[in-house]
Amino acid sequence: MKHIARKKIVSSISLALLALASNAQAAAPSTEELLKQLQTLRATVDALQKQVQEQSESLAKTREAIPEGAEVATSADIDGLRSALEDYKYDSARNREYSTALTTRGLTIGGTLTGSYTSSTSPSVASSNRPQGTPAENSFGVGASLSFAGNLYRDYNDGRNLDYKLGLAFSAPKFSNSAASTNSPAQGDSVVRLTDVYLQYSLFKTNGGLENEKLTVAFGQQKIPFGLEAQVSDELKPTVATAQFLGTSALNNIGQRQIGLIFRGDIEPTVDYGFNYRAPLVEYAFGIVNGNGANTSDNNSRKDYLGRLTFTLPVDYNSLFRELKIGASYYAGSKNLNSTTSPWPVLADTARSNRTGFDISYNHNPFGLTYERAEGSDDALLTPGTTTDPTTKRISSRGQVLTAFFNFGDIAQWSKNLNRVGKFDDFWPSTSQVYYRYDHWDPDTHIAKNEILKQTIGYNLFFAQTTKFQIGLTHTSYPNQNKSAIDDLTALFQYGF
Amino acid sequence: MKKIVSLAAATLFSLGLPLSSFAQENPKIIRLAFSGAGTGGKPASGGSFLATAHQKGEIEKEFEKDGIKVSWTFFVGAGPATNEALALKKIDFATQGDLPLTVARSNGLRTRIIMKGSQFSRNYIVVPTASPIKTIDDLKGKKFAVQKGTAGQLRLNRVLEKFGLKESDLKVIDMNDDSAKAALSTGDVDAYITSSTDLVSRGLVRRIYKIDDPKVNAPSQIWVAEEFETQYPHIVQRVVNALVRTAAWASEEKNREEQYRLWAKTGTPYSDYKEDFKGDQMRDRLNPLLDEYYVSSLAKSVAEAKQFRFTRREVQLAGWVEPKYLNQALKEQKLEGYWDEFDAEAKRKKAGAAK
Questions:
Q1: pLDDT tens sequence across B144-163
Q2: Residue among B129, B111, B116, B124 at smallest CA distance from B292
Q3: In chain B, whose CA is at the least distance from the CA of A273?
Q4: Could you tell me the CATH superfamily of domain A110-496?
Q5: What's phi and psi for B60, nearest 5 deg?
Q6: Can you give the CATH number for the domain in which B170 is found?
Q7: What is the span of the domain harbouring residue B285?
């Protein structure tokens, strides 16, 4: 800067001298004129010197503001930055157009893949999803599910959002009654069926904080709020397999998703902000559903009704009684009773299919304990082989599941607090879990010697954010029956994305 | 035989090797935690000598020769997340703000406060640039973002109380720092309490209130889990030694710029720290002393946490603050008197002692 200013002064003086010289040649100026010109020249020089001084001071101040060792960006640097920014904007716009999956609304895609190996002491019977006529004692298996979730309306003021979920799952093919039906997949084909299909609206505000009570209403095909086994995540259910009482030949109306309208809410949450802990004193759910299962329309004019109530002890996070919860569930169902003889007429269309449940859970990381008891009360035809006799009998059934587990290692798997840590790499805390499970099923309490007892000991290793390895040995016995016990060893990887 | 033992003991004692040192076990790992993470969850922290110790690997250097591993965790969930980790015995040392610290104590979690973390911070209540909000009174009924359970919530309550307001007069929304900044810049919340100046310099928000009262901005602290302290007091002493060394380095004015650059690794701009620490002496802000100001401030936080109903049970102050490790380190490093003490009113005890 100084150098440029000096050049200016020199140029100005040179020009002034040149002008004087040329004037001298044209006509000799008087002394007064020369003095005037000199004064003008001096004023010009002073002004230029002042300008240089000011610029030097300004430059010094700028230099002071620059941290020691810092590099000063030049206009060329800034131009380079601008150019890089423009390139980036162009690239991102182009990538968005050609290489990015776009959705109409906000979307989260998730899913679970399972790879398993099962070995059993009892040969499996041929079925629709196994090689026909070749019973196998061990098998590799796969499973998959995919989900799409997001919101259709986002309420920034109160968080009363309208959300949606669509879930798909791979399942073994089911043969229909008619071989010509398009629903009859060939051996080896798989069937993808809908699991969750619902809209959910938050009736209470959700963005105020943990102390706000919640109430949502969900319409569509969804899991139903009955007990623990039918709806809880692996935080309370260490096995991938579900309880026997939820099986297709058991209390299956609570064991599958139903289509209908369900409200879920809570009252008086105990909030311990010191730990981001929230435990509602009362959680409730009630609803009305078809009762005919997933992906099936209703087959009668009556609906099924369900309700659930749970109480959690109102204690702080660090209390020994944290997450001690007691729940009761009720499902009032109805069903048609069909004759087993062609043309399979409906002999009774007001048959009862009720469920009652009681459960208690104690989830106190690192250990936990759950117990659930579910009872079924079903009408059944006394003589299903006839096509005219609508006389019914009542069958009572009972299932009980007890699970105990202990976590060790980083034990951060289900903690939002411990999972959300700043990390550069994809490190994830690993959690190990050992568990024992007692699963008892009595399909008819009035009939002796028909119970099935499955006891499982197992180990889970959660070694990444969404991945777990599980190995479990299940001993199936038939108390008081002349039947051999069966041992199944299952090892599986379940990985979410 | 007795004579031989006595002779051996005397020899070892004279060599400066107390017998107890042979019985002392070392942990395999020392786990330190920050109640917060950098921008976007970066594993870094700034604004304290503990952050400097992390960046410079001072604790690692101290224990390298013993083969003791050092781990650092940065909880995005801030103080409440630190409390859960303490409850599950997953951390040994941590730095925390006053509210989660107090709540943890009231819930029966046992810690020993061994050093002050930092003090005299500045915070601001900011609103979107185009907002009509001009005063604290204008915040009535407005959406105010704060990370609940953190020191920020207690600070907000103190400010509101000054103006005769309560939390319930506002719509207080629970958000962490990253979410709150994003929501503020899009106008989804009306106000936020922050020490950061980056949104101001980007022209997205303007400040309506400056909080520079040391009684409103409580100091942070560093604690050790009581169980760890009982088992490994010699390790606690060495951690404190390393931190005091770092605090002394951090308090030197000549290291100010270098320190800003280290802290800027959090993603909070260099200019933020420069603005935040402007006009303050580093040795005042990074003062580790458990002085009158600290102790009275802690007692005040405990009382206010109860007053604002963040805690339900009494919090016992006795035995909580443990200055012996700090005093020993100051003595060993000849740093007694290096940092000024402040009285309960946050006034310098030695008038004109600013260095």
A1: 999 888 888 999 999 999 99
A2: B116
A3: B149
A4: Porin (2.40.160.10)
A5: -60, -45
A6: 3.40.190.10
A7: 6-119+219-332
